[in-house]
Structures are given as structure tokens and as C-alpha cells.
From TrEMBL:
Zinc found in the keyword field: no
GO cellular component assignments: mismatch repair complex
Example GO molecular function: ATP-dependent DNA damage sensor activity
Interval of the full protein contained in this chain: 10 to 332 of 630
Source organism of this protein record: Crassaminicella thermophila
GO biological process: mismatch repair
Record protein name field: DNA mismatch repair protein MutL
Alphabetical keyword list: DNA damage, DNA repair, Endonuclease, Hydrolase, Nuclease
Function: This protein is involved in the repair of mismatches in DNA. It is required for dam-dependent methyl-directed DNA mismatch repair. May act as a 'molecular matchmaker', a protein that promotes the formation of a stable complex between two or more DNA-binding proteins in an ATP-dependent manner without itself being part of a final effector complex.
Sequence ranges assigned to domain DNA mismatch repair protein S5 in this UniProt record: 201-319
Length: 323
């Protein structure tokens, strides 16, 4: 079983940022209002994620680390309308098999919390512990027992960049949650969790970028969009600064990036790659989130329709701005 988890880990966890992604998604699924992510050395030696969510019952703590253990799907129908970010029950089993994990967790109605330590999938220690409601995971020495995988990690700076990027995207996707990112003991940014997207853009990217963003929204029947796009007068961004969320989830999607390019191409000569943050909402049955295990790739059932919708929305704003 440990071997199976280690093999599965290769799919779910390939570098520190994928650990962070899984744990932050779990915190979001646990209804956290505050999530703190702390890393050291690019996350290779230390990742700590603290949330103030619902916590895990003492009787469920070990189960959570079992493969295919998920508390999030009640029946097969749920698969078609998944609202939680996790649903496969693979992340904790995978992460625990290739690192040294400490878990501290407490639910609202428990008097004491639980501490559990697992190294390479083996339980090392379990005890009662006093702690506030919520969950903290500490992941130490990722891939310490998988030298082949260890070697594939990039420099600390590069791995840190991936993580910083990811937390930024989470903070933008969930502006109702406060995110704090700490790197090697220094706070990189904190979002307030009660503020608008534009305030989060200030917290994360700075005032300069934020003050040059335009906002446009649109809705046609059950599909809606909110977009923050850089003013056409602002010289180029690049595709990396284009961030998309579909139904609140960060996604990579060529249809949306093509749509931006098309909208700008004809109207704005200097800048085909604006900085933009696009929030699209679409009924879940009109997209397929299940095509990739890490779920950043999605596919729309009617790609042309969505593309036109995005192009038209952005164009209307650009035209208005040019008048
Ligand atoms: P999944 O998210 O697909 O359900 P995971 O392996 O990521 O699977 O997590 C397993 C289970 O552990 C979750 O279904 C949830 O019940 C519990 N869990 C994990 N992280 C947290 C957390 N931060 N707060 C509360 N429960 C959690
Ligand atoms: Mg999960």
C-alpha cells in the first residue's frame, strides 16, 4: 500500500508547489476564512499551511491519509456537480508517502486537538494537543525518500516563484479569504479577506498595476464574466499576467487567452497581451473539469460561444475607453 501511494504521489505531487496547492485547496474546502502559507528553501525543506477551517475529527485523522479517503463526495451523482476543490482523496496519502508530515487539527466541538506525525507514510506519533480550531499541516523534506524525484526540483528561487504565483492566484480567486504568504521568515503579502478584487491586486501586485486596470462585467443567460484588464495605453504585459478563474477555480485555458488576444489585436495596436484577471461563471454541466488530475485544464462544451462572449465583453470595454 505504501508503494502504491508512492506511485500515486508521482502523479499528484511533482514539486513543492503541488503540495501547497493540494493543502490550500483542502483549507478552502474546509471553509477557512484565513490561510497562512509559510515556506522555507523553496518549500523543499519546509511547508506550513495553517487554516481556521472546520478541522478534522480525532477519529478521522488517520483515515484522511488513506488513499481514496474523501469526505467530500456523498454519491456518484456528486461527481457531475462538484463544488469542492478536492474529491479524489489522493493528496494527503500521496504527500505523506514522500515527506515528513505533522498534522495539528481541532474541530469546533472537540475539547482538544490531535497531533499526528507521519514519515514516508508510517505513523510516528499521535497525541492529544491543545490548539485552536482549524488545521495546520507541516510538510518537511519533500522527496527525502525519493532521490530521483528530489533531483527534479529546481532552484529554491524558482520553486519559491511557483508558490508565490499560486498563492496570488488563490488570493485573487477567493477574495473573501485572507491569505498570507511567508517566505524564509519574511511576509511577502497579506490580503485582507474582506475586500474587493482590486484591493487584492494592490496587496499582491502593487499600486502601479492596480491603478491601471479597467473593470468590465457582462452576463448572457446563465453565463457571466467579470474582467479586470489593463488599460490599452499601458505597454505590454505578457501571458503570464493573464489569470483566469472559471467558477472560482484557477484554470489555464487557451480559449480565454485567444479571446483576449483577438479582442486586443484589432483595437489596440501596442498591446496584444494585457495584464488581466478574468472571472467566468458557467453552469458546471457546460464544462469538463475532469480531464486532468490537477484540474487546472478545463474544456468548455461550446468553445466558440464562450470565446465570442469573452471577445465581445472585452471589446465593448476597449471601444468605450477609446471614445
Ligand atoms: P480530497 O481533498 O480529495 O478529499 P485529500 O487527500 O486532499 O482528499 O484530503 C482527505 C480528507 O482529509 C479530506 O476529504 C478532508 O476530509 C480531510 N482534510 C484534509 N485537509 C483538511 C483541512 N485543512 N481541514 C479539514 N479537513 C481536511
Ligand atoms: Mg484535497
Amino acid at each position: 500500500k505504501l508503494i502504491a501511494n508512492k506511485i500515486a504521489a508521482g502523479e499528484v505531487v511533482d514539486r513543492p508547489v503541488s503540495v501547497v496547492k493540494e493543502l490550500v485547496e483542502n483549507a478552502i474546502d474546509a471553509n477557512a476564512s484565513k490561510i497562512i502559507v509559510e515556506i522555507k528553501e523553496g518549500g523543499k525543506t519546509y511547508i506550513r499551511i495553517t487554516d481556521d477551517g472546520i478541522g478534522i475529527y480525532e477519529s478521522d485523522v488517520e483515515i484522511a491519509f488513506e488513499r481514496h479517503a474523501t469526505s467530500k463526495i456523498k454519491d456518484a451523482d456528486d461527481l457531475n456537480s462538484i463544488l469542492s476543490l478536492g474529491f479524489r482523496g489522493e493528496a494527503l496519502a500521496s504527500i505523506a508517502s514522500v515527506s515528513q508530515v505533522e498534522l495539528i487539527t481541532k474541530t469546533e466541538d472537540s475539547k482538544t486537538g490531535t497531533y499526528l506525525e507521519i514519515h514516508g507514510g508510517e505513523i510516528i506519533e499521535r497525541k492529544e494537543i491543545g490548539c485552536p480550531k482549524g488545521t495546520t499541516f507541516v510538510i518537511k523534506n519533500l522527496f527525502y525518500n525519493m532521490p530521483a524525484r528530489y533531483q527534479f526540483m529546481k532552484s529554491n528561487a524558482v520553486e519559491t516563484g511557483y508558490i508565490s504565483d499560486l498563492i496570488s492566484k488563490f488570493a485573487l480567486a477567493y477574495s473573501n479569504i485572507s491569505f498570507r504568504f511567508i517566505n524564509n521568515g519574511t511576509i511577502v503579502f497579506t490580503t485582507s479577506g474582506s475586500s474587493s478584487v482590486i484591493n487584492n491586486i494592490v496587496s499582491i501586485y502593487g499600486k502601479e498595476i492596480a491603478k491601471n486596470m479597467m473593470y468590465v462585467s457582462n452576463r448572457v443567460k446563465d453565463i457571466s464574466i467579470e474582467a479586470y484588464i489593463s488599460k490599452p495605453t499601458i505597454a505590454r504585459g505578457n501571458k503570464k499576467q493573464q489569470v483566469f478563474f472559471v467558477n472560482g477555480r484557477y484554470v489555464k485555458n487557451k480559449i480565454i487567452s485567444d479571446a483576449i488576444e483577438e479582442a486586443y489585436k484589432t483595437l489596440v495596436k501596442v498591446n496584444r497581451f494585457p495584464i488581466c484577471f478574468i472571472y467566468l461563471n458557467i453552469p458546471p454541466n457546460r464544462l469538463d473539469v475532469n480531464i486532468h488530475p490537477t484540474k487546472t485544464e478545463i474544456r468548455f462544451d461550446d468553445e466558440l460561444y464562450i470565446k465570442d462572449f469573452v471577445v465581445n465583453t472585452l471589446r465593448s470595454k476597449l471601444l468605450e475607453e477609446n471614445l
